[in-house]
Amino acid sequence: MNTALNPSATSSRFLSYFDYWLFAAVLALVAFGIMMIASATQNAIDPDLISRVPDQINYAIIGFIVLLLIAAFDYRNLAGLSMWLYIIMMILLLLVELVGVEGDGGAQRWLNIGIRIQPSEIAKIITIITLSTFLAKRYQDLDKLSTVLKALLHLGAPSLLIFIQPNLGTTTVMLVIGLSILWGAGLRLRHIGLGIAALLVALPVLFTQLEPYQVARITTFLNPSADRDAQYNIDQALISVGSGGLLGKGYAQGSQNVGRFLRVRHTDFIFSVIAHEFGMVGAVGTMGVIAFVLARIVRAARLASDPMGSMICYGVAGMIFYHTFVSIGMNLSLMPVTGLPLPFISSGGTSLLFMLIGIGLVQSVVIRRRTLP
Predict the structure, then answer these.
(1) Hey, where are the domains in the chain?
(2) Which one, out of 21, 165, 215, 277, has a CA that is 20 to 30 A from the CA of 84?
Protein backbone atom coordinates (compact mmCIF):
# COMPACT_ATOMS: atom_id res chain seq x y z
CA MET A 1 0.00 0.00 0.00
CA ASN A 2 1.30 3.45 -0.87
CA THR A 3 0.97 5.43 2.35
CA ALA A 4 1.82 8.64 0.47
CA LEU A 5 -1.54 8.29 -1.31
CA ASN A 6 -3.42 6.98 1.71
CA PRO A 7 -4.02 9.67 4.35
CA SER A 8 -5.44 7.13 6.80
CA ALA A 9 -2.34 4.94 6.62
CA THR A 10 -0.08 7.99 6.91
CA SER A 11 -1.95 9.19 9.99
CA SER A 12 -1.77 5.74 11.53
CA ARG A 13 1.99 5.56 10.97
CA PHE A 14 2.42 9.04 12.47
CA LEU A 15 0.56 8.06 15.65
CA SER A 16 2.27 4.67 15.88
CA TYR A 17 5.89 5.68 15.32
CA PHE A 18 5.99 9.25 16.67
CA ASP A 19 8.56 9.35 19.47
CA TYR A 20 6.43 10.48 22.39
CA TRP A 21 9.32 10.08 24.85
CA LEU A 22 11.48 12.49 22.85
CA PHE A 23 8.60 14.94 22.53
CA ALA A 24 7.84 14.79 26.27
CA ALA A 25 11.50 15.33 27.23
CA VAL A 26 11.81 18.36 24.94
CA LEU A 27 8.49 19.76 26.20
CA ALA A 28 9.72 19.38 29.79
CA LEU A 29 12.98 21.20 29.00
CA VAL A 30 11.16 24.09 27.28
CA ALA A 31 8.69 24.45 30.16
CA PHE A 32 11.53 24.33 32.69
CA GLY A 33 13.42 26.91 30.64
CA ILE A 34 10.48 29.33 30.70
CA MET A 35 10.26 28.84 34.45
CA MET A 36 13.99 29.60 34.89
CA ILE A 37 13.83 32.66 32.62
CA ALA A 38 10.96 33.95 34.79
CA SER A 39 13.15 33.49 37.87
CA ALA A 40 16.18 35.12 36.23
CA THR A 41 14.18 38.19 35.11
CA GLN A 42 11.99 38.67 38.20
CA ASN A 43 11.51 42.28 39.30
CA ALA A 44 13.12 43.47 36.05
CA ILE A 45 12.56 47.08 35.00
CA ASP A 46 14.25 46.83 31.59
CA PRO A 47 11.49 46.38 28.94
CA ASP A 48 13.66 43.87 27.10
CA LEU A 49 13.96 41.67 30.20
CA ILE A 50 10.26 42.05 31.05
CA SER A 51 9.33 40.73 27.59
CA ARG A 52 11.61 37.69 27.76
CA VAL A 53 9.08 35.28 29.28
CA PRO A 54 6.10 36.10 26.99
CA ASP A 55 8.43 36.08 23.97
CA GLN A 56 9.80 32.66 24.94
CA ILE A 57 6.27 31.32 25.40
CA ASN A 58 5.19 32.64 21.99
CA TYR A 59 8.22 31.14 20.25
CA ALA A 60 7.65 27.84 22.08
CA ILE A 61 4.04 27.64 20.88
CA ILE A 62 5.06 28.44 17.29
CA GLY A 63 8.01 26.06 17.55
CA PHE A 64 5.96 23.07 18.69
CA ILE A 65 3.38 23.68 15.95
CA VAL A 66 6.18 23.79 13.35
CA LEU A 67 7.74 20.67 14.94
CA LEU A 68 4.54 18.69 14.40
CA LEU A 69 4.13 19.99 10.84
CA ILE A 70 7.69 19.00 9.94
CA ALA A 71 7.24 15.61 11.59
CA ALA A 72 4.22 15.00 9.34
CA PHE A 73 6.24 16.05 6.26
CA ASP A 74 8.38 13.35 4.62
CA TYR A 75 11.98 14.51 5.09
CA ARG A 76 13.01 12.65 1.91
CA ASN A 77 11.15 15.26 -0.14
CA LEU A 78 13.72 17.80 1.07
CA ALA A 79 16.36 16.13 -1.12
CA GLY A 80 14.78 17.68 -4.19
CA LEU A 81 14.82 21.11 -2.55
CA SER A 82 18.38 20.84 -1.30
CA MET A 83 19.99 23.05 -3.96
CA TRP A 84 17.39 25.80 -3.50
CA LEU A 85 17.71 25.67 0.28
CA TYR A 86 21.48 26.06 -0.01
CA ILE A 87 21.11 29.03 -2.38
CA ILE A 88 18.59 30.71 -0.06
CA MET A 89 20.95 30.18 2.89
CA MET A 90 23.90 31.74 1.05
CA ILE A 91 21.79 34.71 -0.11
CA LEU A 92 20.60 35.38 3.46
CA LEU A 93 24.14 35.20 4.83
CA LEU A 94 25.41 37.53 2.09
CA LEU A 95 22.58 39.99 2.84
CA VAL A 96 23.76 40.09 6.46
CA GLU A 97 27.11 41.40 5.20
CA LEU A 98 25.44 43.97 2.94
CA VAL A 99 22.41 45.24 4.85
CA GLY A 100 22.52 43.43 8.19
CA VAL A 101 21.61 45.14 11.46
CA GLU A 102 23.55 44.98 14.68
CA GLY A 103 22.40 42.98 17.67
CA ASP A 104 22.83 43.80 21.36
CA GLY A 105 26.53 42.91 21.33
CA GLY A 106 27.30 45.11 18.33
CA ALA A 107 27.87 42.24 15.89
CA GLN A 108 26.13 42.43 12.51
CA ARG A 109 24.20 39.15 12.55
CA TRP A 110 20.57 40.08 11.87
CA LEU A 111 18.28 40.95 8.99
CA ASN A 112 15.25 43.19 9.44
CA ILE A 113 12.41 42.11 7.15
CA GLY A 114 9.61 43.53 9.27
CA ILE A 115 10.74 41.10 11.94
CA ARG A 116 14.35 40.46 12.87
CA ILE A 117 15.76 37.12 11.78
CA GLN A 118 19.20 35.63 12.40
CA PRO A 119 20.31 33.78 9.24
CA SER A 120 23.11 31.96 11.10
CA GLU A 121 20.45 30.05 13.08
CA ILE A 122 18.65 29.17 9.83
CA ALA A 123 22.01 28.09 8.37
CA LYS A 124 22.45 25.39 11.03
CA ILE A 125 19.26 23.58 10.01
CA ILE A 126 19.71 24.10 6.27
CA THR A 127 23.29 22.80 6.48
CA ILE A 128 22.07 19.66 8.27
CA ILE A 129 19.60 19.05 5.43
CA THR A 130 21.81 19.97 2.47
CA LEU A 131 25.03 18.30 3.65
CA SER A 132 23.11 15.12 4.52
CA THR A 133 21.54 15.16 1.06
CA PHE A 134 24.92 15.81 -0.59
CA LEU A 135 26.60 12.86 1.15
CA ALA A 136 23.60 10.54 0.75
CA LYS A 137 23.78 11.00 -3.03
CA ARG A 138 27.49 10.08 -2.90
CA TYR A 139 27.22 7.36 -0.28
CA GLN A 140 29.14 4.86 -2.41
CA ASP A 141 32.01 7.32 -2.93
CA LEU A 142 32.73 8.31 0.68
CA ASP A 143 36.15 6.65 0.55
CA LYS A 144 37.21 9.13 -2.14
CA LEU A 145 39.12 12.20 -1.01
CA SER A 146 37.35 14.30 -3.65
CA THR A 147 33.98 13.61 -2.01
CA VAL A 148 35.28 14.69 1.39
CA LEU A 149 36.84 17.86 -0.04
CA LYS A 150 33.58 18.80 -1.81
CA ALA A 151 31.69 18.20 1.44
CA LEU A 152 34.12 20.45 3.32
CA LEU A 153 33.66 23.15 0.67
CA HIS A 154 29.88 22.74 1.00
CA LEU A 155 30.25 23.34 4.73
CA GLY A 156 33.03 25.92 4.54
CA ALA A 157 31.26 28.53 2.40
CA PRO A 158 28.43 29.35 4.84
CA SER A 159 30.76 28.88 7.83
CA LEU A 160 33.11 31.54 6.46
CA LEU A 161 30.26 34.02 6.00
CA ILE A 162 29.15 33.39 9.59
CA PHE A 163 32.73 33.77 10.88
CA ILE A 164 33.13 37.25 9.37
CA GLN A 165 29.86 38.62 10.88
CA PRO A 166 31.66 38.05 13.39
CA ASN A 167 30.11 34.98 15.04
CA LEU A 168 32.79 32.61 16.25
CA GLY A 169 30.43 30.57 18.43
CA THR A 170 28.04 29.66 15.61
CA THR A 171 30.98 29.01 13.29
CA THR A 172 32.22 26.31 15.64
CA VAL A 173 28.68 24.90 15.82
CA MET A 174 28.63 24.64 12.02
CA LEU A 175 31.94 22.78 12.04
CA VAL A 176 30.68 20.35 14.70
CA ILE A 177 27.48 19.76 12.72
CA GLY A 178 29.57 18.98 9.65
CA LEU A 179 31.87 16.65 11.57
CA SER A 180 28.88 14.85 13.13
CA ILE A 181 27.30 14.27 9.73
CA LEU A 182 30.59 13.13 8.18
CA TRP A 183 31.16 10.78 11.11
CA GLY A 184 27.62 9.43 10.75
CA ALA A 185 28.26 8.91 7.04
CA GLY A 186 31.35 6.82 7.81
CA LEU A 187 34.23 9.29 7.50
CA ARG A 188 37.57 7.50 7.05
CA LEU A 189 40.26 7.94 9.71
CA ARG A 190 42.78 9.25 7.18
CA HIS A 191 40.33 11.97 6.18
CA ILE A 192 39.82 12.93 9.84
CA GLY A 193 43.59 13.31 10.16
CA LEU A 194 43.67 15.46 7.04
CA GLY A 195 40.88 17.67 8.37
CA ILE A 196 42.60 18.16 11.72
CA ALA A 197 45.87 19.04 9.99
CA ALA A 198 44.11 21.60 7.76
CA LEU A 199 42.42 23.15 10.80
CA LEU A 200 45.71 23.45 12.67
CA VAL A 201 47.26 25.21 9.68
CA ALA A 202 44.29 27.59 9.40
CA LEU A 203 44.03 28.47 13.11
CA PRO A 204 46.81 31.11 13.18
CA VAL A 205 45.26 32.86 10.17
CA LEU A 206 41.77 32.72 11.67
CA PHE A 207 43.04 34.04 15.01
CA THR A 208 44.34 37.19 13.34
CA GLN A 209 40.84 37.88 12.00
CA LEU A 210 39.10 37.76 15.38
CA GLU A 211 37.56 40.90 16.83
CA PRO A 212 39.24 42.36 19.95
CA TYR A 213 36.38 41.22 22.22
CA GLN A 214 36.70 37.66 20.89
CA VAL A 215 40.43 37.65 21.56
CA ALA A 216 39.72 39.01 25.04
CA ARG A 217 37.39 36.11 25.79
CA ILE A 218 40.07 33.61 24.88
CA THR A 219 42.89 35.38 26.74
CA THR A 220 40.67 35.84 29.81
CA PHE A 221 39.93 32.12 29.80
CA LEU A 222 43.64 31.27 29.54
CA ASN A 223 44.74 34.00 31.99
CA PRO A 224 41.89 35.17 34.27
CA SER A 225 44.04 37.80 35.96
CA ALA A 226 44.50 39.63 32.64
CA ASP A 227 41.03 41.23 32.80
CA ARG A 228 39.31 41.09 36.18
CA ASP A 229 36.17 42.84 34.91
CA ALA A 230 35.68 40.24 32.18
CA GLN A 231 36.37 37.50 34.72
CA TYR A 232 33.78 38.90 37.15
CA ASN A 233 30.76 37.05 35.76
CA ILE A 234 32.64 33.77 35.48
CA ASP A 235 33.56 34.10 39.17
CA GLN A 236 29.94 34.86 40.03
CA ALA A 237 28.80 31.85 38.01
CA LEU A 238 31.16 29.60 39.96
CA ILE A 239 29.93 31.08 43.24
CA SER A 240 26.34 30.43 42.13
CA VAL A 241 27.05 26.82 41.23
CA GLY A 242 29.09 26.15 44.38
CA SER A 243 26.65 27.78 46.80
CA GLY A 244 23.71 25.77 45.47
CA GLY A 245 24.81 22.70 47.39
CA LEU A 246 22.82 19.52 46.99
CA LEU A 247 19.25 20.86 46.76
CA GLY A 248 19.77 24.58 46.08
CA LYS A 249 18.38 27.78 47.59
CA GLY A 250 14.88 27.27 46.26
CA TYR A 251 13.12 28.49 43.12
CA ALA A 252 13.45 32.28 42.69
CA GLN A 253 15.20 32.46 46.07
CA GLY A 254 18.88 32.35 45.12
CA SER A 255 20.77 35.40 46.38
CA GLN A 256 23.10 35.41 43.36
CA ASN A 257 20.05 35.60 41.10
CA VAL A 258 17.74 37.82 43.14
CA GLY A 259 20.61 40.14 44.10
CA ARG A 260 21.62 40.42 40.43
CA PHE A 261 25.24 39.58 41.12
CA LEU A 262 25.13 37.24 38.12
CA ARG A 263 24.89 39.07 34.79
CA VAL A 264 23.14 37.75 31.62
CA ARG A 265 21.69 35.05 33.87
CA HIS A 266 18.67 34.51 31.58
CA THR A 267 20.88 33.55 28.60
CA ASP A 268 24.57 32.65 28.85
CA PHE A 269 24.57 31.80 32.57
CA ILE A 270 21.17 30.22 33.07
CA PHE A 271 22.79 26.91 34.04
CA SER A 272 24.36 28.69 37.03
CA VAL A 273 20.87 29.86 38.08
CA ILE A 274 19.63 26.25 37.84
CA ALA A 275 22.51 24.97 39.98
CA HIS A 276 22.09 27.85 42.46
CA GLU A 277 18.35 27.40 42.96
CA PHE A 278 18.00 23.61 42.51
CA GLY A 279 21.46 22.49 43.57
CA MET A 280 23.44 19.58 42.22
CA VAL A 281 20.25 17.52 41.92
CA GLY A 282 18.68 20.09 39.59
CA ALA A 283 21.85 20.60 37.56
CA VAL A 284 22.49 16.88 37.08
CA GLY A 285 18.80 16.30 36.40
CA THR A 286 18.83 18.94 33.65
CA MET A 287 21.89 17.36 32.06
CA GLY A 288 20.22 13.96 32.38
CA VAL A 289 17.12 15.06 30.45
CA ILE A 290 19.27 16.58 27.68
CA ALA A 291 21.29 13.33 27.58
CA PHE A 292 18.00 11.42 27.23
CA VAL A 293 17.02 13.66 24.29
CA LEU A 294 20.39 12.95 22.64
CA ALA A 295 19.96 9.19 23.21
CA ARG A 296 16.54 9.23 21.52
CA ILE A 297 17.98 11.17 18.55
CA VAL A 298 20.84 8.66 18.15
CA ARG A 299 18.25 5.88 18.35
CA ALA A 300 16.35 7.56 15.50
CA ALA A 301 19.59 7.71 13.48
CA ARG A 302 20.07 3.96 13.91
CA LEU A 303 16.48 3.21 12.92
CA ALA A 304 16.50 5.49 9.87
CA SER A 305 15.39 3.91 6.63
CA ASP A 306 18.14 5.56 4.57
CA PRO A 307 21.55 7.30 4.94
CA MET A 308 20.03 10.77 4.54
CA GLY A 309 17.72 10.28 7.51
CA SER A 310 20.51 8.87 9.64
CA MET A 311 22.83 11.79 8.85
CA ILE A 312 20.11 14.35 9.59
CA CYS A 313 19.71 12.84 13.05
CA TYR A 314 23.46 12.82 13.70
CA GLY A 315 23.65 16.47 12.62
CA VAL A 316 20.86 17.50 15.01
CA ALA A 317 22.47 15.48 17.82
CA GLY A 318 25.85 17.12 17.19
CA MET A 319 24.27 20.58 17.30
CA ILE A 320 22.44 19.96 20.60
CA PHE A 321 25.41 18.21 22.22
CA TYR A 322 27.88 20.95 21.33
CA HIS A 323 25.55 23.73 22.50
CA THR A 324 25.10 21.90 25.80
CA PHE A 325 28.79 21.11 26.25
CA VAL A 326 29.94 24.68 25.61
CA SER A 327 27.12 26.37 27.55
CA ILE A 328 27.65 24.29 30.68
CA GLY A 329 31.43 24.41 30.22
CA MET A 330 31.54 28.21 30.24
CA ASN A 331 29.35 28.26 33.37
CA LEU A 332 31.95 26.05 35.06
CA SER A 333 34.93 28.02 33.67
CA LEU A 334 35.94 25.02 31.58
CA MET A 335 35.31 26.80 28.26
CA PRO A 336 35.65 30.39 27.01
CA VAL A 337 32.46 32.46 27.06
CA THR A 338 31.00 32.21 23.55
CA GLY A 339 27.34 33.09 24.06
CA LEU A 340 25.97 29.72 22.94
CA PRO A 341 22.58 29.13 24.62
CA LEU A 342 21.69 26.05 26.66
CA PRO A 343 19.36 24.13 24.29
CA PHE A 344 15.61 24.56 24.94
CA ILE A 345 16.28 26.44 28.20
CA SER A 346 18.16 29.72 27.63
CA SER A 347 16.20 32.80 26.64
CA GLY A 348 16.27 33.30 22.88
CA GLY A 349 13.29 32.78 20.62
CA THR A 350 15.16 32.24 17.36
CA SER A 351 17.46 29.63 18.89
CA LEU A 352 14.51 27.82 20.51
CA LEU A 353 12.52 27.84 17.27
CA PHE A 354 15.27 26.24 15.21
CA MET A 355 16.14 23.71 17.92
CA LEU A 356 12.50 22.59 17.77
CA ILE A 357 12.66 22.48 13.97
CA GLY A 358 15.65 20.15 14.38
CA ILE A 359 13.58 17.90 16.64
CA GLY A 360 10.81 17.97 14.02
CA LEU A 361 13.27 16.66 11.42
CA VAL A 362 14.26 13.84 13.78
CA GLN A 363 10.59 12.97 14.33
CA SER A 364 10.06 12.91 10.56
CA VAL A 365 12.92 10.42 10.27
CA VAL A 366 11.76 8.18 13.11
CA ILE A 367 8.14 8.11 11.85
CA ARG A 368 9.42 6.79 8.50
CA ARG A 369 11.92 4.39 10.02
CA ARG A 370 12.49 0.89 8.81
CA THR A 371 10.27 -1.74 10.36
CA LEU A 372 12.22 -4.05 12.67
CA PRO A 373 11.56 -7.80 12.47
Answers:
(1) 10-77+120-367
(2) 165
